Amino acid sequence: MAHRYYDLLSLTVLTALEVFEASARLRSLELAASELNVTSGEISRQIKIIEDELGVQLFVGPGTGVVLTSTGKDLYTELASIFSKASDVVTTIKRAGRSQMSRLPPPMRSRRSG
After folding, report:
1. pLDDT digit string, tens, across residues 6-33
2. For residues 14 and 70, what is the distance between their CA atoms, to the nearest angstrom?
3. CA 40, CA 51: separation in Å to the nearest integer?
4. CATH number of the domain within which 41 lies
5. H helix or E strand, kind and range, residue 92
6. How many structural domains does the chain have?
7. What is the dihedral of CA 80, 22, 65, 40, to 10 degrees?
8. Could you tell me if residue 23 is inside a domain?
């Protein structure tokens, strides 16, 4: 197996991290499911992927509200910071791209003889 530069495993785990972040931020699996347009069951499945991969529990107790373990709090804090920074960079790039696009001359139209 090839060594990865970042030890983030696979896209499956990265997707699960997005699900975890939403669940932790909203403190609700149901609200996270609604925000991400998936079922609550899918949210639970994605969180289990991370917990199995890391070998730790991220949430404590049953019920609709979720309570983070100390490890879950640590992971959430880092993910929230990373996602926020990534969002800022993407927004800046989009704004710059729109600005550059607005300065381009209009496309040339070919003249057809008729």
Report:
1. 665 566 778 899 999 999 999 999 999 9
2. 21
3. 17
4. 1.10.10.10
5. helix 70-103
6. 1
7. -160
8. yes
